[in-house]
RNA sequence: GCCCUCGUGGUGAAACUGGAUAUCACAUUUGGCUUCGAACCAAAAGUCUGCAGGUCCGAAUCCUGCCGAGGGCACCA
């Protein structure tokens, strides 16, 4: 509708059209949509805005889309949409309602979660996953072909540190002790912290870790190694980590098309940098490291190949981009990480722009906010983290407590517990704009009331419950008899496709969250005021149709957030 | 020291990217389940947007300067 109105205005003002906006009015008395075109145009041609608005209004004349056009305030033009428009759209609501075409035939590869093998899955990964999964679904709904990938670190100094500690722990008096095998995944997180500490504090340990790092770089994943070798320990831990992560992804509703291990892009990245070095894009710095002078572009210098001759994260990222492109020939590549990497990405993308401009052009980095503890930053280096799992478990406990007296089967309770908990967490992450941090305060950030995941789920469930009752009472939905005046609910449902588009264009799921929360509120108010299933009411079939449209819209929207709709809760 | 974010009722956020009377939720106070699910609804009170200037018909949003918080700045990812 917004575009429709824009077109109409364009037609009315001809070539004079300046850059103007058409907005959804937030105040009912200002109509459904409003535009500032007259204000901007007036400035340009030096006339009174209200006069200009009047002129435009005359030119638009009659249009069956609008029931009324008004000029208000300093010169806004307010459009009142005719009820027929809302009702026509209401009739079309189905599982595809909201589906767009703006990304039709576009191939998008999206990279998110990026958990590390040999480290625990912490809240940051949970955030990246929620954001990435939601964006993926939004892009798909907009018509894109989406490939979900997860770039997982399975190599590099961080891994070497963990492996070093694991080796140390599985030794007794200098020899490997079989009884200490195998290592649990929880120990891996601790192993990393331990290895990191040793790396900093002990020169000898540091040397050993660097040795291990080199060995890991040369591991052949297809080959078998002795369980007692560094390579063997490494492969075992790798296997365990992968399984552990797979479970979590499943619970969160993500199915990756491909898990790309860091080790796969190492050589590719190194080659790109070496070529760039010959072309003068990179240069040799102190100690023979290959660096990129970001200062030339207002950024900072970063090391791409370290003095040991090993590619760093930056080189690997170049390799990763090429790897992805070779495989998927994407039109757009989206990378979701925490915002602490924003500056890093600027430099890396700047370098990429020099060595592979086509890829850099198509790449978009999204830095999501970080989950912070009230007392400061979480760090896996110090072992001070909240794991994703422990958070989910904690929330599940609360849900269990809430539904313990409900008459539900054991299976139902299990499903509800899990889905409500995940929904609550996802909501709390997605409700604000992507870049801003969340202060992790357990009681406040994960809520079941008001602005919350369960609020959405509850409203949907309630609507479903009403529809079930309608079936029992044998009242069928119908648009034959429509009340004189339509309500806010019809209008709100109508807006859904525009909101989806807005979320897609801005890479911002929170627009959707805000909208769905409002939609749920409108339905709940409607529900409180109206008896929907009522044999004595001639409008009952229409109310049921409206409830049905609401439920479908809600379901479509929740799916885009990867929050599960529930029949019962 | 340099660079990048951000500062909005007591708390957490929003403001459709420069628009109309700054929204929403939590918490607080009050009212509503013999009637389709009260994880709900209704009502009250509470912010003129860190501070000081500037641009504009119009600023939470843009510019300048302070104050405060967070992040990043060569061999971690």
Q: In what order do the strands lie side by side in the largest sheet?
A: 9-6-5-13-14
What name does CATH use for the topology of the domain at 453-561? Isoleucyl-tRNA Synthetase, Domain 1
Count of strand segments:
16
CATH class call of the domain at 453-561: Mainly Alpha
How much of the sequence is in beta strands?
A: 5-15%
Helix/strand-derived category reads alpha/beta
Separation, N- and C-terminal Cα atoms = 36 Å
Main sheet attributes: strand count, strand direction, barrel closure: 5 strands, parallel
| Helix fraction by DSSP (H/I, runs of at least 4) | 40-55%
Mean pLDDT: 89
Please tally the helical runs, counting DSSP H or I stretches of 4 or more residues.
20
CATH superfamily of the domain at 453-561: Isoleucyl-tRNA Synthetase, Domain 1
Indicate the overall shape. Answer: globular
Q: Segments where pLDDT lies below 50 for 5+ residues?
A: none
- Integer-rounded radius of gyration: 28 Å
The CATH architecture name of the domain at 453-561 reads: Orthogonal Bundle
3D architecture notes:
The chain has 20 helices and 16 strands. Among the domains are: 80 residues, Arginyl tRNA synthetase N-terminal domain (Gyrase A, domain 2, 2-Layer Sandwich), CATH 3.30.1360; 109 residues, Isoleucyl-tRNA Synthetase, Domain 1 (Orthogonal Bundle), CATH 1.10.730.10. With 569 residues, the protein is of the alpha/beta class. Helix 2 crosses helix 3. It is globular, with a radius of gyration of 28 Å. The two termini are 36 Å apart. It binds one RNA strand of 77 nucleotides through helix 2, helix 6, strand 12, helix 12 and strand 16.
């Amino acid at each position: 509708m917004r575009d429709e109105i824009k077109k109409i205005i364009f037609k009315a003002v001809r070539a004079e059209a300046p850059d103007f906006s058409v907005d959804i009015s937030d105040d009912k008395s200002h109509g459904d949509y409003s535009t500032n075109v007259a204000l901007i145009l007036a400035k340009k041609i030096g006339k009174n805005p209200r006069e200009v608005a009047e002129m435009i209004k005359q030119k638009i004349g009659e249009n069956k889309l609008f029931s009324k056009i008004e000029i208000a305030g300093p010169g806004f033009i307010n459009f009142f949409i005719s009820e027929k428009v809302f009702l026509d759209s209401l009739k079309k609501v189905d599982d595809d309602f909201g589906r767009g075409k703006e990304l039709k035939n576009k191939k998008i590869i999206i990279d998110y979660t990026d958990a590390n093998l040999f480290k625990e899955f912490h809240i940051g990964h949970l955030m990246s996953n929620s954001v990435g999964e939601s964006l993926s679904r939004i892009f798909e709904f907009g018509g894109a072909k989406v490939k979900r990938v997860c770039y997982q670190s399975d190599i590099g100094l961080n891994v070497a540190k963990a492996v070093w500690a694991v080796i140390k722990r599985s030794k007794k008096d200098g020899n490997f002790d079989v009884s200490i095998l195998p290592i649990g995944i929880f120990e891996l997180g601790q192993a990393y912290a331990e290895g990191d500490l040793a790396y900093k504090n002990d020169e000898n340990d540091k040397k050993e870790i660097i040795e291990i790092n080199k060995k890991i770089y040369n591991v052949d994943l297809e080959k078998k190694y002795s369980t007692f070798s560094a390579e063997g320990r490494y492969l075992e831990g790798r296997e365990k980590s992968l399984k552990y992560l797979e479970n979590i992804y499943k619970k969160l509703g993500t199915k990756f098309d491909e898990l790309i291990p860091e080790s796969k892009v190492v050589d590719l990245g190194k080659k790109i940098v070496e070529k760039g070095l010959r072309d003068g894009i990179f240069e040799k710095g102190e100690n023979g490291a290959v660096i990129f002078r970001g200062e030339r572009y207002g950024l900072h210098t970063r090391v791409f190949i370290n003095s040991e001759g090993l590619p760093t994260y930056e080189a690997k990222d170049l390799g990763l981009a090429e790897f992805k492109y070779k495989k998927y020939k994407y039109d757009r590549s989206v990378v979701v990480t925490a915002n602490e990497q924003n500056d890093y990405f600027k430099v890396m993308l700047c370098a990429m722009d020099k060595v592979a401009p086509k890829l850099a052009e198509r790449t978009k980095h999204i830095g999501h906010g970080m989950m912070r503890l009230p007392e400061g930053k979480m760090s896996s280096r110090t072992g001070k983290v909240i794991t994703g799992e422990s958070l989910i478990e904690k929330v599940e406990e609360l849900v269990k407590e809430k539904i313990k007296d409900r008459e539900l089967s054991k299976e139902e309770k299990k499903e509800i517990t899990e889905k409500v908990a995940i929904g609550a967490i996802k909501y709390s992450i997605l409700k604000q704009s992507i870049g801003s941090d969340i202060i992790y305060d357990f009681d406040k950030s994960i809520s079941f009331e008001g602005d919350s995941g369960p609020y959405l789920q509850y409203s949907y469930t309630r609507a479903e419950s009403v529809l079930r009752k309608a079936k029992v009472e044998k009242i069928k939905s119908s648009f034959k008899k429509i009340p004189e005046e339509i309500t806010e609910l019809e209008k709100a449902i109508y807006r859904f496709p525009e909101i989806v588009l807005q979320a897609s264009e801005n890479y911002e799921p929170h627009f959707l969250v805000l909208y769905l929360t409002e939609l749920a509120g409108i339905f709940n108010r409607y529900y409180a005021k109206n008896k929907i299933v009522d044999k004595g009411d001639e409008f009952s079939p229409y109310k049921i149709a409206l409830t049905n449209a609401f439920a479908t819209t809600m379901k479509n929207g929740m799916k885009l957030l990867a929050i599960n709709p529930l029949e019962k809760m």
